[in-house]
Amino acid sequence: MKPPPITNYARHETRVCLGHFKANLRHAAKHPEDPDAIHDLRVAIRRLTQCFRIFRDLLDPSPVKKLRRRLHKIMEHCGAVRNCDIALELLAQCGLPESPSVPKLRKEREDAAQKLHRNLKKERRRHHRAVGAAARPAHRGWQIATRLPALAEDFFETGSAAVAPGSSYQTLHRFRLHAKRFRYTLERFEPFYGSEMATGAKALKGLQDRLGAINDCVTTIDLLAADPGAVAAIQKRLDQRTRAFQSYWRSRFPPQKRAWWRHWLTEPRAPASGPVKAT
Question: Which of 62, 96, 172, 188 is most deeply buried (CB count within 10 A of its CB)?
Fold first, then answer.
């Protein structure tokens, strides 16, 4: 039986993300010393993983499950390198380039980069099986016009909890992941929306940047627990970044904006061009 249109679209989008992952994998394997290459690989993995999550009912689960396990391992290695890069960058921004923690971080970064390089070389030799449609795709009831508005509602609920008085950094971290996944989900359906998508994506990008800046501080404080001077300096920056996030959320995502998101997300349109219609 021929797969329905939404399954065709899911397969196409997943292959696009898989292609981006493979390109960034090759680049990072050649340049493991480049922080930007590692960052780009992490973003490509997140987008591919979110694509698997979005379309999990529409794709053949066997190759997806195997690849997700390997992606998780790569992310662990990338994260170890990235955390050192972020910590070194924050120390420099705080005027502490000669902190006692710097030599230790550089050594940790070197060791982590070697492990990452070995893992990436191994992964490059693997065959990345094309992701196909599931044998019996669970496509009934799968509609953009209902799924995306529901995600927007969840996004506002978790965001409101993250800015509530007394909110913990664990809550902020969960919201950061939620916001990132929401943004990467919307990207997959960009052809079905007009200028509203560009406006919404821009607001989400600004939010994600601020949440990421907070997470960088929290991660670095954990790494530098034995360096109280550095921790105090980064804590001050963390407090500033937390206030900046809260201000941004209240200005760009006030309660009345909820209806705006719900309205345009319930009205996807057939794209002017594209592989299939997926409404």
Answer: 188
Which residues 6+ apart lie within 8 Å of 253 measured at CB?
Answer: 156, 159, 203, 207
Task: Say whether 144-265 and 1-128 share the same fold.
Answer: no
What is the architecture, at CATH level 2, of domain 1-128?
A: Up-down Bundle (1.20)
* CATH superfamily of the 144-265 domain: CHAD domain (1.40.20.10)
Distance CA 218, CA 201 (A): 25
Residues 237 and 90: their CA atoms lie apart, in Å, by: 9
Tell me the one-letter amino acid at 14. T
Residues of the chain above pLDDT 90, percent: 78
pLDDT digits (tens, 9 = 90+) for 92-144: 999 999 999 999 999 999 999 999 999 999 998 886 665 666 655 555 557 88
The whole-angstrom separation of Cα 59 and Cα 53 is: 10
What 3-state class would DSSP assign to 134? coil
What's the pLDDT tens digit per position in 28-47? 999 988 999 999 999 999 99
- Domain ranges for the chain: 1-128, 144-265
The model's pLDDT over 52-92, given as tens digits with 9 standing for 90+, comes to 999 988 888 888 998 999 999 999 999 999 999 999 999 99
- Alpha-carbon gap, residue 240 to 236, rounded angstroms: 6
